[in-house]
Amino acid sequence: MMEKTKGALEAEISKALTHWEKTYLGRGSISVKSDILRDMIIVSLRGILTPAEYSLCKDKEGLLSVKENRNSLVESGADELKKIIFEITGHEVTSFYTDISTNTGERIMVFKLAEDLQSKFD
């Protein structure tokens, strides 16, 4: 069924999520790395905070505000993200998790799939 390699699929996911970030959030991350692991797709996005957001993160109130705003923005696009993953992999996303580190400016996204995608490549 899968004619693409695991690496090619991971690269396609990274490219699609970068495009989504630019169109939906107005700017993209510096680097994106996607990994298929069993029934999950784990995406690491680096360099997503603006200089102004880093400045806000210097105190706890600002840090929580940036984290909450950024997570709300991404959560509001969750249905679109799930659709992107489905279109690329052909696998339904059953749940989606995300968090951001205001320390490193890195976001992690985890897409939990209805079935094991990694086994298609073994």
From TrEMBL:
Residue stretches making up the Na+-translocating membrane potential-generating system MpsC domain: 5-114
A Pfam short name: MpsC
Taxonomy, superkingdom: Bacteria
Alphabetized InterPro entries for the sequence: MpsC
Protein name: Na+-translocating membrane potential-generating system MpsC domain-containing protein
